[in-house]
Amino acid sequence: MTGGGFQDLGERLRQHLDASHAARETAIPACRRTIRLCSSSIRAVHRLEPDMAAKLADEADAALREAQEALRPFPSLAATGPLHDAQKEYAEARLTAALAAGRPLPSFEDLDVGAAAWLGGLAEASTEMRRHALDRLRDGDLDTATRLLTAMDDVYGLLVTMDYPDAITGGLRRQVDALRAVLERTRGDLTTTVLQANLQKTIERSLGRG
């Protein structure tokens, strides 16, 4: 290869790497904004502020699309950690809101995120339902807490069937194991509350007859 050929090759490589670097510099802050906004959206769900949760999730959506668009020409960068993490957090925010409200779950196609990111987000969203269920128990809303436990059970039943290598699911098996422990603790807390409520009713009926 002549010297000119090397120079041309080097120039094309520099142009590609410059563009890759610029895309990464755009995507990483957008991914961080996505994660931050999703965290705030999930907190709003727990505070029973669905409108605020939806607004923050919409802002996270815009930030995520910015990151995805920046990395679209560079698949090797798009497959790396920051974008996957942002997609997972976005899925978690949307799925947390849906589970808390008892709405149908948006699919990974609906959210325009990867399947592995969606699965991870679903596992985390189901874990968030423990806090939501305990909050509803403290409010005396046993029916909602029971519905949330059922939803957690349904999610676990789905995720445990995703028996694929971690390279495909993004380490889902570890998240499912964690969810199982959270599910059983929540079931125990709810059972204890139901037994206490039944005992209280029995005592009150007995006193009433007395």
Structure notes:
The chain folds into 2 domains: 1-105; 114-210, Methane Monooxygenase Hydroxylase, Chain G, domain 1, CATH 1.20.58. Helices cover 85% and strands 0% of the residues. The longest helix is centred in the first third of the chain and has 44 residues, at 3-46. Helix 1 packs antiparallel against helix 2, helix 1 (3-46) packs parallel to helix 4 and helix 6 (115-138) runs parallel beside helix 9. It is mostly helical and 210 residues long. The mean pLDDT is 91. The protein is built from 9 helices and no strands.
Question: Topology of this protein?
Answer:
Blueprint: H1 3-46, H2 50-71, H3 75-78, H4 81-101, H5 108-111, H6 115-138, H7 142-159, H8 166-169, H9 172-209
Helix pairs in contact: 1-2, 1-4, 2-4, 4-6, 6-7, 6-9, 7-9
Short characterization:
The chain has helices at residues 3-46, 50-71, 75-78, 81-101, 108-111, 115-138, 142-159, 166-169, 172-209.
Tags for this entry?
210 residues; mainly alpha; Methane Monooxygenase Hydroxylase, Chain G, domain 1
| Tertiary shape | elongated
Helix content: over 70%
Query: In what range is the share of β-strand residues?
Result: under 5%
Q: Largest sheet, described in full?
A: none
Find the count of extended strands (DSSP E, 2+ residues): 0
Alpha plus pi helix count: 9
Derived from helix and strand composition plus strand pairing, the structural class reads: mainly alpha
| Distance from first to last alpha carbon | 104 Å
Instruction: Provide the low-confidence segments as ranges.
Output: none
| SSE pattern, N- to C-terminal | HHHHHHHHH
- Nearest-integer average pLDDT: 91
- The tally of domains stands at 2
Could you tell me the radius of gyration in angstroms? 23 Å
